[in-house]
Design goal:
Largest sheet: 11 strands, mixed
Family: Belongs to the peptidase S45 family.
Active site: 249 (nucleophile)
Pfam families: Penicil_amidase
GO biological process, one term: antibiotic biosynthetic process
Oligomer: single chain
Keywords: Calcium, Hydrolase, Metal-binding, Zymogen
Length: 797
Amino acid sequence: MKKIGIALGLLFLLLALGILLIISVHTPQYEGKIKVPGLTSAVEVYFDEHGVPHIYGQNESDTYRALGYLHAQDRLFQMEMMRRVGTGTLAELLGEDLLSIDQFFRTLGIPAYAEATTDQWDSQSTNSWTNPTKAYIDGVNEFIKEGNLPVEYRLLGEKPREFTINDIHAITGYMSFTFAVALKVDPLVTLMHRKLGNKYLDALSVDMLPEHHFIPNHYPDSLINPSPKSESSLISLLEKLPVPQLEGSNSWVVSGNKSKSGKVLFANDTHIGFSSPSVWYEAHLSYPGFDFYGNHLAGVPFALVGHSLHHSIGLTMFENDDHDFFELEVNPSDPNQYKFGESYRSFQMTEQLIPIKGQEPVKLEIKKSIHGPILNDVVPEIAELTSNPVASWWVYLNEPNRALEALYRMNHAQNMQEVANAAELIHAPGLNIMYGDSLGNIAWWAAAKLPVRSEKVHPKVFADGSDPETMPTAWYPFTENPMSINPESGYVISANNQPDTLSNGVLFPGYYYPGERWKRISQALESKNDWTIEELKSVQLETVNDCHPENMKYMLTKINRDDFLEFSSIFPYLEDWSGDHQLEEVTPTVYYKWLYHLHRLSMVDELGEEAFEAYLTTFMMIRSTPHFIQNEQNPWWDNIETTEKETQEEIFSKSLEITLQELKEQFGENVNTWRWEKAIIAEHPHPLGSKKPLNKIFNVRTQAIPASEESINKLAFTLNGDGIYRVRSGPAMRILIDFADVERSYSVLPTGQSGNRFSPYYKDQEELFAKGKYRWQYMDRKDILENSENPLILNPE
């Protein structure tokens, strides 16, 4: 027995030593000295208490080389996932399960466009943004060569290849694809249009309605002149993506006339799919003539959101419609031709080989028309809708990519006009660029190339591809884009809602949200003129939606309460609901399940299960709900599969009956215990976390959070019959800045700064985020030194 005990002891000791060895070879280095070839002088790096690097270099090139090294140290596997999505090479690393994703993105055209952009980059002369980009790439590659690689590569039995400029172009391509709204919505709207007709569409909000909230424009005279120049559905396919999708965002900028400090206040929280690590990597860069605190996308050297001592930039999704679909007529005597005008043109055919881990490559044939690639083979909803080829026309593929130049210029801007000039360079995705500065200026620009469409085209219904007049013909000039510069209101707000008409009178179409978040922010800012960033925390964290209690009150008028005597104690909760989503609330648990069954009973008979589930994932469902439920003559009420005609009251009553019975079985007979916290799951999934037991190692599961659709603190989920809601997206950071003390601003990340599982900063902000707390963004060197350990020194070789 003694020998067995000794043997077991040695076994456990060897196991412990093995674990320590694995941890040691995969852990980031946050202090000491590292030799980094290519540096011309030493770079000092101080990591604050949450792992944010404050990088002090003697010149631009050294500083960006250090950023590349440190970004890779904390986020290399995230960079790997991002570049592989954009280059269509996920299956090469992760296996056959990801083949459909590669086929989709290659057919859509992102990898080929990235390669074309790289060819242009290689032929360009050196510009101000090319040298720091090259330095960043060199820093990433030095870490790949000599650094402690993350453990994911060991688990996959792989090593990373070198990082390239093409990878950056592919990553910006994926960012431009973002949330695939058109690909989710347009086939669905076309299906409804063809199968059901306009009376069914009129019961929804396919277009904006009068009750929705529009962003006011304010065009200044000073900026009139432009500057120089095989899945069941796409949704289930995109659920396999190992990287988060951009979904929305809030931002507002308040002038000094409405702040207690007399200086500009700046707020931004970008809404992005939950993931581990979360999307943003924070870094403070300082070298002679430049001092900037930024939020970086994996593999991109310049910040998309950030601030210097004199200006701040933020973003939200514009949600403009930049994607059209054209149904083509095939030549009956030649399937390789399509009709365009009075003649036939030949499809352009290309072949690609997709590498797959452990298997032979798979051949992909891509067919293109003058409009763009044919998507039938990679978007099941399109294939089910029509056997005719459907081509994708996308703004992103129709203009040169100048994203890196735009970001560099915004980071290094010295005034508001320079930011406006940089915003003009962005063609896709549509971004709302938010701006504030130390001089008191506030601004918002909708940055995108907006196509001039034919009056023959409904932007959300497949167009006739044989008619040349349906093709977009030109771009609106940037000076006509939505914008607001120093408005009299004293604030600018963007919350993914519809901007008002352009300066030319056009109301540009899109996939905008109804503006309930915009309304709540506007009401708050109008209520006083002495705001502080401490007080703005309560605005940023608000979980109230005014529209939901109005829906509830209406729904209650359409049922007979005598039919629900068993559940009579639930009605006081439903009647008194303010629209808040705090964890102890009971009403949200009932409300969302009731909404689900109400829509299911109304729509499945017309749409089928898959199309109905697709509808639930769209902005259209959120925007349509009040209009949908308060329409007594809504044609959706009738079940087309029965002989009798169902009424609104019948649907409301039956759906509530199902809801209450299911909740009784789920949470018990005592309705007081049906608290919202029991229905919410919040987890940040890692790309390898879908496999057990890796989910326990890499995924970050949080305490319950007050999930809510279209409150300012938007923590989004999808309606479902289970009554358990997984938060799919939320604020990917929360930033608050007062230019009276710009060197100490607030932020928080959903998980942590590092994507390395063995880093102490992997999930150290999870509790702060879940509980609505913040931490500092330091820019003052004294603060940084007081809140950092020993520095990491990067030395020349």
